[in-house]
Design goal:
- With 200 residues, this protein is of the alpha+beta class.
- The chain folds into 2 domains: 112 residues, no CATH class; 38 residues.
- The protein has 4 helices and 7 strands, in the order H-E-E-E-E-E-H-H-E-E-H.
- It has a 5-stranded mixed beta barrel with strand order 1-4-5-7-6. The protein has a two-stranded antiparallel ribbon with strand order 2-3.
- Strand 4 and strand 5 form a beta hairpin.
- Its main location: membrane.
Length: 200
């Protein structure tokens, strides 16, 4: 009687462990799919792939330039936030080009090197832009990314999804997938050993 209870408990434990392993595999596959349709297209679409060194030539703030809203409302509402324009010398080509913060900055506003995310408090936005401009004037040489194909003459300061960030995004689903497969394999080995022992 006690032996039957132990066997039943063992089967329940194996079933739960097997469900856990399969659940982890299923969750990891869903995470792979989500990363594949969100992060990977942005990474592959980016043309600013080669790193070089940029040297600041001028960093100007135009207070009276109206920049369009990054969210793109229906009535094309515009906001009068300061427009920071940074021009740099690209070491790789020796050309004078405009610097943008990330890949989406030229799409949001091609006139400005930096587009603030929140525009509720104009004083805070102005102070932030002035701080960024002073940092560019202080640290005049820094790494940047350019398009080796030449389709984009501008450069960017940082990529939205660099190679290390993409690898880090795939790290967690890979660990979960490996752990799930390991649990399933261990359960199958345990079941095989149990059947083999009972047969002997």
């Amino acid at each position: 009687m006690l032996g039957k209870k132990l066997v039943t408990a063992q089967k329940r434990g194996e079933t739960r462990a097997l469900c856990l392993g399969l659940g982890m595999v299923a969750c990891s596959m869903m995470m792979y799919f989500f990363i594949g349709i969100t992060i990977v297209p942005f990474y592959t679409k980016s043309v600013w792939t080669t790193e070089s060194v940029c040297k600041v030539l001028k960093a100007n703030i135009k207070d009276k330039v109206f920049c369009p809203n990054s969210e793109g409302s229906e009535d094309e509402e515009i906001f009068p936030y300061p427009c920071l324009q940074v021009w740099v010398n690209l070491t790789a080509s020796g050309q004078e080009v405009m610097l943008y913060q990330t890949e989406d900055t030229p799409e949001r506003n091609p006139k400005c090197s930096y587009v603030p995310d929140k525009l509720e408090n104009s004083k805070e936005v102005k102070a932030r832009i002035e701080t960024i401009a002073s940092n560019f004037k202080k640290y005049q040489t820094f790494p940047c990314y350019y398009d080796p194909g030449g389709t984009q003459t501008s450069v960017i300061l940082s990529r939205l999804y660099p190679s290390k960030g993409l690898l880090f995004a795939f790290l967690w689903p890979t660990l979960m997938f490996t752990g799930g497969c390991l649990i399933v394999v261990l359960v199958k080995i345990s079941q095989y050993v149990s059947v083999l022992s009972a047969w002997q």
